[in-house]
Amino acid sequence: MSLSVSTPEHLKSIGLLQEISTDKEYVINYLMGQALERIAFLPFGFLIDQFRWSVFRGETTAENYNEKWWQLRCKHQGLSPPIPRGAADFDPGSKFHIPSNTPYIRYFVSFVIQFQFHKALCEVSGHKGPLHRCDIYNSAAAGKKLRDMLAMGSSKPWPDAMEAITGQRKMDAKPLIEFFQPLTDWLIEQNAGYDVTWQDECPPGTFSSGSGTLSRMTTAMCLLYIFIGFYFQIQ
Question: I need a surface site. Which of 47, 122, 216, 230 has the fewest CB within 10 A?
Answer without folding.
Answer: 216
